Amino acid sequence: MPAPYLKILSYVVKVGLLFLPLIAFIVSATMFFPYITGKNFAFRVIVEILLGLWIILAIFKREYRPATSPILYAVAITVLILSAAAMFGENPYRSFWSNYERMEGVVGHLHLFAYFLVLISVFKSIDDWKKMFYSLAATGAAMAVYGYAQFAGLIAISQQSGPRVDGTFGNATYMAIFMMFQAFLAIYLFLRAENRYWKILWAALFAIEAPVIFLTATRGAILGFAGGIILLVFLLSIFSQNRRAKFGAMGVIAGIAFLGGAFWLMRDTDFVKSNYVLSRFSGLSLHERTVESRFTIWGMSWEGFKERPLLGWGPENYNIVFNKYYDPKLWRQEPWFDRSHNVIFDWLITGGVLGLLAYLSIFGSALSMLWARYARERAVVGSVFAPAVFTSMFAAYFFHNLFVFDNLVSYYLFFTFLGFIHFYNATTDHEEADGRLQAGKIAFWQVMAATLVLFSMPVVMYFANAKPIQASRALLNALRDLNQQGSNVDLILKDFDKVFAYSTFGNGEAREQLSGYANNVVKSSLSNENKLRVLNKAIEEVSDQVNDNPYDARAYIVLASLYGSGGKTAEAIAFLNKALEVAPRKQQIYFLLADIYRSSGDAEKALEAAKTAYDLDTNFEQAAMVFAMFNIVNGKQDEADAILMRTFGSILLPNAQMVTAYALAGRYDRVRDTWLMLIESEPSNVQYRVSLAATYVQLKDYAKAIEALARAVDIDPQFKQEGERLINDIKSGKIQ
What is the dihedral of CA 470, 474, 477, 478, to 10 degrees? Predict the structure, then answer.
């Protein structure tokens, strides 16, 4: 290929790399999981295009083939081990493709590796990396402004983050790690700035970005950032040749220590408790619920690692370990975890000890390369800046990941800085790779290889991106129609068929959404024919999900719930027992099993299932209530009262489920008392008063029934006609 064309290709690739940081701002309202899918698909499409163009460059010119380095070897080995772990893991398909919520898996890591290869092969000058850092800094500044706008109430924070600033990530922890990387980058640019104006600019950028980390209220990130700053100033105080810098670093450490001590002394004051971020730290202890749950989950992860120590369970299979070794004490947390929230245990489960060692080797190789160059150039002024800043950055990043997990943007920034370290170690400030393009002969194999790349690119992009994107949009459209036209069964089933027709990793999510729709349809006023159509379709699809994921307890529970809704109790019980084989200590399964047994008329087995759930952790309030309810239904009122008193300190609870249990047992006195408690908590609830009136009728207390209905009429004038009719029916004896 002629040199001018290669130059154009090189320019296009570089521009593409410089625009990649903008993916942080993508939120796709037309796809499922809009904060995740839009960013990931954009990253993958761009990287695939850049990869294809780079391969063509590398085919024709050696200058564009990557130089070897310990980092390159470490990253390549990590990807190979992840691929092997996926191949020999419990669910290779899920390990490779992941799902819409995470968009990671092997395919995600392959794209990150491809990005790293292109980056280190094309950016081979200080000028290239300055442009990249300026591009990153600009996105960091813009995101910080966006965060302040959220804090000021000018832009909405996503629902799941509450008061915590989360930028365009939909998750405050993702925002925190993004801003932490950006703040360290600002420090590095400040230290390397050539004049005071640039120093003022980078200092101002740091001053803008650092507080945003605090506004995310992400404790791991805030502590990691503070620790990283302390490590940085400590390293500078030791290795800097400037005495003023040494004293300045010591002053920063003293200042941070002072602020930490002041916070500790003020931790019980109203000022701290009234501030959401500070209050999260003031309540931090080993006995705090989130901390305790982390330790519990890490213990479960350790058990899973011991079962498969070499290559682990494969990427995206943590849910299998979570269910198999589930500790009933976790009832306070969400029931389905797909990460251990600890980078060590996540890698042990994902890739075993080989995967963890490979991952750690990336950090080890990067740090060794940084400090190896410093050892060669320690006499050069400023030579300590890069090793000190990036060592501190990686330490803060690693500490943060001890409590959460990575996402695309944090991985992207990590690999970007790895790419810079690869370049930094290979050259000096005065010695750069020769990027000039020399004309040369073109071999036949080069033409054929380039042609193959060009034809392969659209094929890869179609299967890796186009189909999943179309499926995601089709699923979102199905959910939109479901909410707006849920009674139009033909339309909804047609919508879901479109999703399944793409046959992508989105099928699993679509099946769960379809099953939820089916359960609602069964309870609706639609015709039995339509109910059966929806139910059978959902059972068919979720059965495929069970076959595809034989170790996934969640799939068995969803399928059992569908069979239960259809009145097929034998099948429901069979699948719940299968769920217990892969998740033997999950209370949720026993709750559903108790309900199914009760609906089938086997009250004794229902009580036994409820007791098992309760015995797993007697502090679980829902388990106590369910066990008490089934004792009531089985006529064991004294046992139920003892459970309720032990757990709630009362034999009566303002809970509609308890009403059902008392009614089935014929204890209408308890039904009455429960309705009275519910009315006390919601005095304006007309339906509660109508139900109370019906209970008084059962107790033959007609005067009280009329009084309850009359009060309902007073509260809601629209109920007057119906209420007066019921009152007249009671007075005339029609209702007894």
Answer: -170
